[in-house]
Amino acid sequence: MPRVPARESAGGTQSVERALSLLSAFTEEQPERRISELVAATGLGQSTVSRLVGALVNLGYLTHHGRSGLYGVGPRVITLAGIGLNQSPVHQQSRQLAQNLAATLGLGVNVAERHGASLFYLCHFEGANAPRPSTLIGRGGPLHATAMGKALTSELPPDDLRGLIGAEYARYTPHTITSYDELAAALRDVRSRGFATELEELAFGRACVAAPIRDRSGQVVAALSVSGPLSAMNLPARQDELAMIAIEHADQISSNLGYHATVTALP
């Protein structure tokens, strides 16, 4: 196999890094950008940005809207995202179940994993009583301010949890947990009850109930949630009902992943 010269290899790596930095400049807040905005966001020269953007458009990773001059994420990125999702065992085992549950309850049903210090949505289905203007798939979210995050971190050792969350807890509403002691107490509740709750901790007017999903070894690898507006969730009256539904469906996914809980027989 021919050896790639060091200079050529380094240059190729640099081009890849620059191209990826351009793709990373597109966010939910800024889904479309002009060349000048990409220059400012990446710190690259205008000629470099123009050349790389042209290549990314030709390859389908970006699209160009001629009338406005704006660039956006292209269909090739969506194709790769779909491939990544379809390779996930959690996504494979939970997608249809979550979709059916959302239709039955009329509420939102989500499945997420933890990637580092944030959760990452794998499935998102809307119910008739919990519509959303955009999908959550692929989005991240805070661990301390969501029921999903609490379910995902419920069995982490204290030192690991401290290292993951850090010393500062972002406050999203007056109801957000903002200290380790508060979070530790909430996670004790999750372990004892088998489910986590969220009541206007991330956003006003919304509530959520979530349960952990386990892999073959019994480790928590994902979480399933039922969520929606306060009026539709009605936690004061429905918390136990919705929690049991979330637990049952999370357990079904865990079983599909190969997990079988051991039951100790009473003497």
Fraction of residues in β-strands: 15-25%
Number of helical regions: 10
Radius of gyration using CA atoms only: 22 Å
Structural class: alpha+beta
Walk me through this protein's architecture.
Helices cover 47% and strands 19% of the residues. It has ten helices and nine strands. It has helices spanning 6-24, 35-42, 46-59, 75-87, 89-105, 147-153, 158-165, 180-193, 230-233, 235-256, and strands spanning 32-33, 62-65, 70-73, 108-115, 118-125, 140-142, 196-199, 206-214, 220-229. The strands form two sheets. The chain has a six-stranded antiparallel β-sheet, with helices on both faces. Strands 1-3-2 form a three-stranded antiparallel β-sheet. Strand 7 and strand 8 form a beta hairpin. The longest helix has 22 residues, at 235-256. The protein is globular, with a radius of gyration of 22 Å. 29% of the residues are buried. Residues 1-9 and 263-267 have low confidence and may be disordered.
Provide a concise account of the structure shown.
The protein is of the alpha+beta class and 267 residues long.
